[in-house]
Write a structure and sequence with these properties.
Layout: H1 6-12, H2 16-34, H3 38-50, H4 54-75, H5 82-97, H6 102-108, H7 114-128, H8 139-147
Length: about 150
């Protein structure tokens, strides 16, 4: 049996209105860039390729907080060692379920999954003609077609 992707787990554990807002932002972005010149679209694709996804943000947060706890347990009070243990349990939860306490906050802040970022990136590439088999579809149709694919 196939394991659900990170996106599927994160989206399943995110309130529907937040998923909807993120999806609308992607669609609005594609529509906005559809009327832009090629260099502007290429610049946006470049930005998307560098956008941090929720997995990367969580890894940075977890490692920063864990290292801080280890450091504080060495120079201040041994009880700070509990902090890395709590953070690691959050990472475990996220790996297994796609949810941990920071996920709802990050999603409300608009942090996207890699698949959500790629959906926008691929839709923009279609506008540039990088995928000739899709043809000349209007921006809404391009997004709808790409949204139906698992990236």
């Amino acid at each position: 049996m196939a394991q659900p992707s990170d996106m599927e787990r994160v989206r399943a554990n995110t309130p529907a209105e937040i998923n909807w807002r993120i999806d609308r932002q992607i669609e609005d972005s594609v529509r906005r860039y559809a009327s832009e010149p090629k260099d502007v679209i290429l610049r946006r694709i470049w930005e998307l390729e560098r956008e941090w996804d929720i997995e990367r943000v969580l890894q940075l947060m977890a490692s920063s907080v864990s290292l801080t706890g280890i450091l504080l347990s060495g120079i201040r009070d041994k009880r700070w060692i509990v902090l890395p243990a709590v953070v690691l349990s959050f990472l475990f939860l996220h790996a297994v379920q796609g949810w941990c306490p920071p996920v709802p906050v990050l999603r409300r802040l608009g942090v996207r999954t890699r698949e959500e970022i790629d959906r926008e990136r691929y839709a923009l590439k279609v506008l540039l003609g990088d995928f000739p088999t899709i043809g000349n579809l209007p921006p809404g149709a391009v997004y709808s077609r790409l949204a139906s694919y698992s990236v």
